[in-house]
Amino acid sequence: MDGFSDEPFRILCKKFGSAISYTEFINTTDVLQKKPYIMKRIAYEETERPVGFQIYGNSTDEILKSLEILEEYSPDFFDLNLGCSEKHVTSRGAGSGLLRFPEKIREIMTALVKHSHIPVTAKIRIGWDKSSLNYLEVVKILEGCGARMIAVHGRTRDQRWREPALWEPIANVKKAISIPVLGNGDVRTIENINEMFAQTGCDGIMIGRAAIGNPWIFSRIDKNELSKTEILEIISNHWKSVEAFYGGEKALVVFRKHLKSYLSTHQFADLNLKQLISSADPIKALGI
User: Fold this and answer.
1) In sequence order, what are the beta bridge partners of 150?
2) Is 84 a catalytic residue?
3) DSSP string computed for 159-225
4) What SS3 class is residue 75?
5) Is residue 79 part of a domain?
6) What share of the chain is helix, strand, coil (3-state, %, to 5)?
7) How is residue 101 annotated by DSSP?
8) Domain final residue pick, 178, 206, 234
9) Could you tell me the pTM of the whole model?
10) Chain segment 149-171, per-residue pLDDT in tens
């Protein structure tokens, strides 16, 4: 959800019923280098709580040093990302790249739990590839080191999002450990929510891409049953918060991605979506 789950979007999802907020990825190296963009990534409203800072890195020392800085901003928990499949992350041995090195995961999680004053959680994929489905080994390590909750995405790193997510591994994790387990992967509809709970026994469901352009999913409202006016009202509210948060041209760049998803539905079938999104001011073109 990098580039999508910023403060304005998370606040909107929270209003519709999301239980927990996760920030966009926070690169621990960038925290130490004081990159300007970090402040936007760690920004959150009190209404979002519980909110977790989603961190990634492969250096235990860097992670701990960044922890000292990030704790000053009082998140409710830190989430160690072991699931990102992007090459620029995995090539440096971070994100799902760490799944190849369970003992490194043990080292990092042990240090995080020892030095953090707040709970630490983790998100994983089920393995690096289909020949190394080591998710049970990894979750037992995480639980043994003191992780308080684990989210499981039902794909390997190599699968990225190309193949359907597997939910059986999520059920296996739920049976193998005693801490809360969140299921993730291919939950796009209200029916999918019910199906995942029934098939996996998970304690909660993490919804990411399916919420883009559809925050109603957290209220279990079918977007297809909404009127055009109802959708436009939320688009307008979301746009105003993005504009206030980023200002100027940056806001429009950020919001175009959301707008495309909002309008990719039957209520707006009469629109030339490609032309609208690429126009100089799609918000004005919509009459908002």
Assistant:
1) 122, 181
2) yes
3) TTTTSPPPSHHHHHHHHH-SS-EEEESS--SHHHHHHHHHHH--SEEE--GGGTT-GGGGGT--GGG
4) coil
5) yes
6) 50, 10, 35
7) -
8) 206
9) 0.93
10) 999 999 999 998 889 999 999 99
